[in-house]
Write a structure and sequence with these properties.
The chain is mainly beta. The protein has one domain: Jelly Rolls, CATH 2.60.120. The chain is globular. It starts with 5 loop residues before the first strand and ends in an 11-residue tail after the last strand. The mean pLDDT is about 90.
Amino acid sequence: MNDTGTTPPADSPRYHLAQLDALAPIPCPCGLARRAFGQIADAPASVHLVEIKTDAQIHYHRRTTEIYVVVEGEGEIELDGKRYPVKPMTAILIQPGCRHRAIGQLKVLNVPVPPFDPADEWFD
C-alpha cells in the first residue's frame, strides 16, 4: 500500500484497494473521516469511514450526492430539518442541496458521488 492507503495494482488500472481502518483520520464537520479513492483520476465516487461526533455540523453539498450506511451505533439523521432514527444497516441517500447531519455516536460508511471535494461543502 502507498501512503494514501490504496494499493494501485501493477497489472491492471481497473481496480484499487483501500484498508479504511488503516487510513489516517481527517477532521470533518461530522467528526473524523478516513477517506479513500478521492485522489484517483476519473473515479466515479470515493468512500469514507466516518466516526460521527455528537455535535456534527449541519452542512450541504451543491454537486455531490452522498450515500450513508450506518455500520455502528444508534442515533438520528437530520435531513432538511427533519430527524429520523438510524441504527446499523440503515442506508440514506442524500441529494445535492439537502442540509444534513448525523446525531449520536455513530460509525458511517459514506459514498460521495462524484468523489468528495472539500470545495463542495457548504454551511448556512
